[in-house]
């Protein structure tokens, strides 16, 4: 498992459960921004098509940038899950609807991402109305 987070404290929060399960040795944790790590992975073609499952719950303004990289890393038949793709319901709200400032700020990024993956012929998508929305993308080509 490759786990990435901008803040090591988030990883350490779950570390006791990971250790208790006896799987700490299976996790490669990388602290810092994900895009440089993904760029390194994508630059080495031996990593292409090697991941079965990828889950993204990060900076919404970079979801599309993540997808552009992850599509090379996920194998055909593999799944990428994106969290928060309903974004507090704002993606179906009128543009002038009242929203918290951070919701309004990221709304356009989430809308752009949702449109882009809906048009991406390399994936089949399924958006689940669980929590704040999870979109599953199965790579088909």
TrEMBL record:
It is an enzyme of class 2 (transferase). Gene3D superfamilies: Vaccinia Virus protein VP39. Keywords: Lignin biosynthesis, Metal-binding, Methyltransferase, S-adenosyl-L-methionine, Transferase. It comes from the Eukaryota. It catalyses: (E)-caffeoyl-CoA + S-adenosyl-L-methionine = (E)-feruloyl-CoA + S-adenosyl-L-homocysteine + H(+). Belongs to the class I-like SAM-binding methyltransferase superfamily. Cation-dependent O-methyltransferase family. This is caffeoyl-CoA O-methyltransferase. It comes from Genlisea aurea.
């Amino acid at each position: 498992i490759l786990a990435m987070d901008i803040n090591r404290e988030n990883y350490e929060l779950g570390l006791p459960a990971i250790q208790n399960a006896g799987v700490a040795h299976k996790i490669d944790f990388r602290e810092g921004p994900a895009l440089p790590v993904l760029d390194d992975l994508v630059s080495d073609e031996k990593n292409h098509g090697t991941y079965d499952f990828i889950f993204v719950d990060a900076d919404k303004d970079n979801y599309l940038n993540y997808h552009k990289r992850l599509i090379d890393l996920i194998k055909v038949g593999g799944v990428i899950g994106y969290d928060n793709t309903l974004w507090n319901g704002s993606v179906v709200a009128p543009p002038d609807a009242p929203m918290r400032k951070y919701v309004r700020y990221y709304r356009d990024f989430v809308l752009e991402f949702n449109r882009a993956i809906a048009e991406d012929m390399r994936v089949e998508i399924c958006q689940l109305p669980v929590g704040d929305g999870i979109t599953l993308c199965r790579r088909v080509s």
